[in-house]
Write a structure and sequence with these properties.
This protein has 171 residues and is an alpha/beta fold. The chain contains four helices and nine strands. 24% of the residues lie in helices and 35% in strands. Strand 1 (8-11) and strand 2 (19-22) form a beta hairpin. The structure holds adenosine monophosphate (AMP).
Length: 171
């Protein structure tokens, strides 16, 4: 199935110079969405994944169904101030300024194996923050898996040593 054909490029969104990879046409197509979830889950079957962590917000749409597919739990990694219970936080740098990811302190049991999922990896800052957060909680990061890798931004280098999968790579 040609998932790439369903990705919509939006130039200059959310700011000038960025070409936003809009995956909503993939999500809206039942066959494409199902094929995408199967492909994201495939390399991780029978690896004993305990939890799948999704990065706010588009990561949630992929991580939750992959968690069901792998018979694992789902954890949301959220922007600051969104989670209602006790949180731990991991700050990270953006091109201009900084941001953070937060996770509930009881989301993970020490020693669990956690797969991180997001829609896009660009510079890798967000994925690296997710890896740090989960490792600080005492879990093992089984891997980072994304739908789309913007390879020209070298995000992979930010998570060196962590098993990485991308379904589509744009050079
Ligand atoms: P980065 O931390 O630079 O790897 O950015 C990754 C995060 O920003 C992910 O959560 C993506 O959803 C989002 N993102 C960055 N660049 C794009 C893009 N060109 N199209 C869609 N989402 C993007």
């Amino acid at each position: 199935m040609d998932l790439a054909a369903l990705i919509r490029d939006i130039p200059d969104f959310p700011e000038p110079g960025v070409v936003f990879k809009d995956i909503t046409p993939v999500l809206a197509d039942q066959e494409a969405f199902a094929a995408l979830i199967q492909s994201l889950a495939e390399p991780h079957r029978d690896l004993g994944i305990d939890k799948v962590a999704g990065i706010e917000a588009r990561g949630f749409t992929l991580a939750a169904p992959v968690a069901c597919e792998l018979a694992a739990g789902f954890i949301p990694l959220r922007k600051p101030g969104k989670l209602p219970w006790k949180t731990m936080s991991q700050p990270y740098s953006l091109e201009y300024g900084h941001d953070a990811l937060e996770m509930h302190t009881d989301a993970i049991v020490e020693g669990e194996s956690v797969l991180i999922i997001d829609d896009v990896i660009a510079t890798g800052g967000t994925a690296a923050a997710a890896v740090n957060l989960i490792e600080r909680a005492g879990a093992k990061v089984a891997g980072v898996t994304v739908f789309i890798e913007l390879a020209f931004l070298h995000g992979r280098a930010a998570i060196e040593g962590v098993p990485f999968h991308a379904l589509l790579r744009f050079d």
